[in-house]
Design a protein that fits this description.
Structural class: mainly beta
Subcellular location: Endomembrane system
Pfam family, one: Adap_comp_sub
Keywords: Membrane, Protein transport, Transport
Radius of gyration: 24 Å
Number of strands: 26
Protein name: MHD domain-containing protein
Family: Belongs to the adaptor complexes medium subunit family.
Strand content: 35-45%
Length: 452
């Protein structure tokens, strides 16, 4: 049971606020933001998704830089509320096309209408984009997609090639294009978040992939879709062999998933026979399939770190990143971080000759080295040297007081599991009906860590 729902900007401005039950003080939005800001200023990690202040439970998720928050005084399931917040954000994006502060402010009437249909007196009614069409009548005010900040997954695909139109998925499910036309197209995105932990000698200690097949459909008449995956796909551990030595990221070899689940609209009549999913897609964006893989796979990056003393009050760090994916693929927004000894006072950096699009920084407040690379081409290597100065002499092993090295990145048109959409078939209405089909891949770092 939800008492309030509100959306705040990164500055703490209240964009949307709906009080369903009148049980929580009106200043809850300010209380929430101050609490979250306190967590960050105290040098700790960001505020947890659920916390309690003066008997009020605060639940929040951060979506494209916005805080989606719900409050309650009762002992409600945290996972249920957090899932609700994610679904509300998705429904709003489906109707507005673009989810950002500007689109929310310009479409506040439509947003409030959606919220009143999704939640009634604190109780959830529906989060189905398709069902809401019968009750929501306001038209969205279209926001220029060119002004969209690069914060959401849609913009991941805008770089590199014209066959990946990221901005095309920023359309509303209820608004047609100028002239009343409706562009017939369907998007299928295979998004994988990988977690890898390397030992100090470079061996893989843990590896896991959390993946999802997302679909967004702009097809009239709700035609039936057939989605074919790898024929050699195995679910439930398979033979247990490693896929680490597969010939290529998109090469042959069995794909073995630990487990998976499907959207309620998916029919699995032929899945065991030919790994084909059949569905009539609902309106809006939705996950066709979620899956998890813990078999050992080939990581996209190798991280080598060397740290050694260079005198009584000095040390040198050498960081080397090797991109182990094809040269036709480029990783974007790469960031490397490394905690340094607490008594580090200064760090000077030396990049490789001719380095372009790279930044370095020493965060003195929390003693952390940061290295940013705009892009890394597959097969390339990059090195950073950092000279450290300390306020006191070293005692013991310096590697015990530094690290581990962590890395974040996004790699469009690459997936580590090798799961593929072999074909996307749409039940034809006529011989001339040929909608656009877009199948796109992206891999992101969830927890990518190398110990020293």
């Amino acid at each position: 049971m939800i008492s309030q729902f509100f959306v705040l900007s990164q500055r703490g401005d209240s964009i949307v606020f709906r009080d369903y039950r009148g049980e929580v003080p009106k200043g809850s939005a300010e209380i929430f933001f101050r609490k979250v800001k306190f967590w960050k200023e105290d040098g700790q990690e960001e505020a947890p998704p659920v916390f309690n202040v003066d008997g009020v439970n605060y639940f929040h998720v951060k979506v494209v830089g916005l805080f989606f928050v719900a409050t309650s005084r009762v002992n409600v399931s945290p996972s249920l509320v957090l899932e609700l917040l994610q679904r509300v954000a998705r429904v709003i994006k489906d109707y507005l096309g673009i989810l950002n502060e500007d689109s929310l402010r310009k479409n506040f009437v439509l947003v409030y209408e959606l919220l009143d249909e999704v939640i009634d007196f604190g109780y959830v009614q529906t989060t189905s984009t398709e069902l809401l069409k019968s009750y929501v009548f306001n038209e969205p005010i279209v926001i220029d997609a060119g002004r969209l900040q690069p914060l959401n997954p849609a913009t991941i695909f805008t770089q590199g090639t014209k066959r990946m139109p990221g901005m095309a998925v920023t359309k509303s499910v209820v608004a047609n294009e100028p002239g009343g036309r409706k562009r017939e197209e369907i998007f299928v995105d295979i998004i994988e978040k990988i977690s890898v932990t390397f030992s100090s000698s470079g061996y893989i200690l843990t590896s896991e992939i959390d993946g999802t097949i997302q679909m967004k459909c702009y097809l009239t008449g709700n035609p039936e879709i057939r989605l074919a995956l790898n024929e050699d796909l195995s679910i439930g551990g398979g033979s247990g062999r490693s896929v680490y030595d597969s010939r290529s990221s998109f090469g042959s070899g069995a794909v073995m998933l630990d487990d998976c689940n499907f959207h309620e609209s998916v029919r699995l009549d032929n899945f065991d026979l030919d790994r084909t999913l059949t569905l009539v897609p609902p309106d809006g964006e939705f996950p066709v399939m979620n899956y998890r893989l813990t078999q050992e796979f080939k990581p996209p990056f190798r991280i080598n770190t060397l740290i050694e003393e260079a005198g009584a009050l000095k040390a040198e760090v050498i960081l080397k990143i090797s991109a182990e994916f094809p040269s036709s693929i480029t990783a974007n927004a790469v960031s490397v971080q490394m905690p340094l000894p607490k008594y580090t006072t200064r760090a000077t950096f030396e990049l490789e000759p001719g380095a372009i699009g790279q930044t370095t920084d020493f965060k003195e407040a929390n003693k952390r080295l940061e290295w940013g690379l705009n892009k890394i081409v597959g097969g390339s290597e990059h090195t950073l040297r950092a000279k450290l100065a300390f306020s006191r002499e070293l005692h013991g092993n310096i590697t015990k007081e530094a690290g581990p090295v962590s890395m974040t990145f996004t790699i469009p048109m690459y997936n580590a599991s090798r799961l593929q959409v072999k074909y996307l078939q749409i039940a034809k209405k006529s011989n001339t009906y040929n909608p656009y089909r877009w199948v796109r891949y992206v891999t992101q770092a969830n927890s990518y860590v190398a110990r020293l």
